[in-house]
């Protein structure tokens, strides 16, 4: 039994790909080595961006609209934080309410996106109308709490 485990371990370790960051060809000049590593990382990043862009092109339009809404909500929260950093946070509860409203709305929109996505097997029996009704109701409760926090 132990011999079989050792043999399987040896076979596995010999078949595993070398994924280290070191280049396979030794260089005498470290400058060339860093240049090749930088080119490799840049080409890998470009390949990653291309694959993500091609995969996102197949995304349905309704999910892209929800993604745009999430980006808008997060951008609004970032603008509020920058404004608070520049001007100050005198009514701190107002600042906190605005940022939490944006972040909460973005989280609820992500939940809506998960529920509406047809590729998600967990919510396949949930109609999109029900998911949108949940989104609207949760947003209503969120904003009622935010308005109450404003005072």
From TrEMBL:
<dbReference type="Pfam" id="PF02109">
    <property type="entry name" value="DAD"/>
</dbReference>
<feature type="transmembrane region" description="Helical">
    <location>
        <begin position="132"/>
        <end position="150"/>
    </location>
</feature>
<dbReference type="GO" id="GO:0008250">
    <property type="term" value="C:oligosaccharyltransferase complex"/>
</dbReference>
<comment type="subunit">
    <text>Component of the oligosaccharyltransferase (OST) complex.</text>
</comment>
<keyword id="KW-0256">Endoplasmic reticulum</keyword>
<dbReference type="InterPro" id="IPR003038">
    <property type="entry name" value="DAD/Ost2"/>
</dbReference>
<keyword id="KW-0472">Membrane</keyword>
<dbReference type="GO" id="GO:0006487">
    <property type="term" value="P:protein N-linked glycosylation"/>
</dbReference>
<comment type="pathway">
    <text>Protein modification; protein glycosylation.</text>
</comment>
<keyword id="KW-0812">Transmembrane</keyword>
<comment type="function">
    <text>Subunit of the oligosaccharyl transferase (OST) complex that catalyzes the initial transfer of a defined glycan (Glc(3)Man(9)GlcNAc(2) in eukaryotes) from the lipid carrier dolichol-pyrophosphate to an asparagine residue within an Asn-X-Ser/Thr consensus motif in nascent polypeptide chains, the first step in protein N-glycosylation. N-glycosylation occurs cotranslationally and the complex associates with the Sec61 complex at the channel-forming translocon complex that mediates protein translocation across the endoplasmic reticulum (ER). All subunits are required for a maximal enzyme activity.</text>
</comment>
<keyword id="KW-0053">Apoptosis</keyword>
<keyword id="KW-1133">Transmembrane helix</keyword>
<feature type="transmembrane region" description="Helical">
    <location>
        <begin position="68"/>
        <end position="86"/>
    </location>
</feature>
<comment type="similarity">
    <text>Belongs to the DAD/OST2 family.</text>
</comment>
<protein>
    <recommendedName>
        <fullName>Dolichyl-diphosphooligosaccharide--protein glycosyltransferase subunit DAD1</fullName>
    </recommendedName>
</protein>
<feature type="transmembrane region" description="Helical">
    <location>
        <begin position="92"/>
        <end position="112"/>
    </location>
</feature>
């Amino acid at each position: 039994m132990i011999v079989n485990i050792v043999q399987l371990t040896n076979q596995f370790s010999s078949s595993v790909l070398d994924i280290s960051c070191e280049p396979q060809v030794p260089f005498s000049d470290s400058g060339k080595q860093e240049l090749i590593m930088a080119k490799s990382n840049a080409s890998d990043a470009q390949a990653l961006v291309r694959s993500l862009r091609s995969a996102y092109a197949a995304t349905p339009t309704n999910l892209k609209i929800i993604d745009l809404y999430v980006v808008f909500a997060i951008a609004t929260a970032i603008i509020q934080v920058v404004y608070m950093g520049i001007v100050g946070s005198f009514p701190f509860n107002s600042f906190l309410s605005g940022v939490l409203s944006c972040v909460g709305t973005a989280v609820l929109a992500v939940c809506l996106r998960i529920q509406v996505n047809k590729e998600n097997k967990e919510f396949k029996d949930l109609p999109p109308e029900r998911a949108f009704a949940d989104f609207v109701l949760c947003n209503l409760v969120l904003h009622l709490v935010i308005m109450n926090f404003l005072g």
